[in-house]
Amino acid sequence: MGRTSPVVQGRSHARVAVVTSNFWPEPTGTSQTVWEFVRFLSDAGVPVEVATSMPYYPEWRISPGYRGKIWSKEQHGGVTIRRAWHYVSPRPSTVVRLLHEISLSLLSIPNLARTLWRARQAYVVSPALSYAFSGMLLAKILGVPTVLVIKDVMPDAAVELGMMRNRMLIAVSRLLARWLYSWADEIHTLGDGMRARIARDTTATKIRVVPDTIDAVELAPVPMRDNEFRKRFVADGSFVVLHTGNMGRKQDLFLLLRAAQRLRADNGVRFLVFGDGAMKDDFVRERDALGLDNVLHYPLQDREMLRHMLSGADVVLVSQLPEVVDIVVPSKLITALGAGSMIVAACAEQSETARLVRESDGGICVPASDDGALVREIGKIRQGQVDVAGYRSRARQFALRRFDRKAVYEPLARSHLTGMDESESGAAISGRPETRNVEA
């Protein structure tokens, strides 16, 4: 899973520091996957401290209970979490994102210093480049070995999606990224395409693919007769196309609206969207302007409902803009595979998403932004022309083989426990259950 430095003399056993701009209790994306990693280490007996922001994502509003504070410290799941205030606005323009990162980076310096002090190793999570830079710089000053964890390749993702256009800002961001790559003792990223892109700017041998993971029990499919999602949200006889999670630019949710517009006369098809994010208000406004009664929007549901939704939907839509190729691997795809969903992925043919869908044979790909192709596949599935049971079974089996949390993270947890007494570290690992449910 990646090499770890030998125990540093005088450091606190195997204590690990994590520097991430997004973390629990935020329910989607990087926040969720970093929490799953941290929780696994903590459950295995590795002491972990986290330096992060006040929770704000995907709504882009600081959550109630955290407002009005400059700094806070809390314990959750055996993990110490230090937070700092930052600027945020529900309309996240380039300027807002820049002010968010700068304010977080500056106000987090005391927390970063406390979290990194005497740590055995630091995991510094990007895409927040300036916050990652602050964490990496302090780690180097304090002599803490570092792993840079790249969830989105920045600033490439922002540039290619049209979210960053200022040439000076792009140049500074690329410089920050190169510094991060060169300072990191090791780099973890999510897929082969992302690894190849990062290798353009740094030594390829220090880059490892460490995928996001699933918990087999948490995502166990729920039969339709017992499925709470079907009972609460789906009218009898309806065919449901589902999107759940972040509603950002790269998700291309206007594709869903165009497909719904094509099918507006068909009372049997409903498009259900559960989520929040930077594009939510625009999405809802466009839906209302088009008068699409077949598109329903709901807030994000509790985590325990996720497996009901993903296994209960007739189609789970994973959509991306055509520009999204090798800058990200969507965690929602891995989760959908793990839940045995009937996946239709609207994505670029050469993208990481398309590669995973083809490799798993656990879903159907259609061209990115092609609403006509999406509607045709929906029709085939409704008419019984697709082996839905086969796709669902292959998706889940592939995810269990490739993304099982214990298989991916346990070697890393063991390496961090080498600084503890051998019998103690063995007991910490062997005492864990094979799988567990995630709190979030």
What can be said about this structure in brief?
This protein is an alpha/beta fold and about 450 residues long. It folds into two domains: about 15-215 and about 405-430, 3-Layer(aba) Sandwich (Rossmann fold), CATH 3.40.50.2000; about 225-400, 3-Layer(aba) Sandwich (Rossmann fold), CATH 3.40.50.
Topology record:
Elements: E1 16-19, H1 29-43, E2 48-53, E3 71-76, E4 79-84, H2 94-107, H3 109-116, E5 121-126, H4 129-141, E6 146-150, H5 156-160, H6 167-183, E7 186-189, H7 192-198, E8 207-209, H8 228-233, E9 239-246, H9 254-262, E10 269-276, H10 280-290, E11 295-298, H11 306-312, E12 315-319, H12 331-338, E13 343-347, H13 352-360, E14 363-367, H14 371-382, H15 388-403, H16 405-416, H17 422-430
Parallel strand pairs: 1-2, 1-5, 2-4, 5-6, 6-7, 7-8, 9-10, 9-12, 10-11, 12-13, 13-14
Antiparallel strand pairs: 3-4
Helix pairs in contact: 2-4, 3-4, 4-6, 9-14, 12-15
If you had to describe this structure to a student in words, what would you say it looks like?
- With 440 residues, the chain is of the alpha/beta class.
- The chain has two domains: 225 residues, Glycogen Phosphorylase B (Rossmann fold), CATH 3.40.50; 178 residues, Rossmann fold (3-Layer(aba) Sandwich).
- Helix content is 40%, strand content 17%.
- The strands form two sheets. Strands 3-4-2-1-5-6-7-8 form an eight-stranded mixed sheet, with helices on both faces. Strands 11-10-9-12-13-14 form a six-stranded parallel sheet, sandwiched between helices.
- Helix 12 links the parallel strand 12 and strand 13.
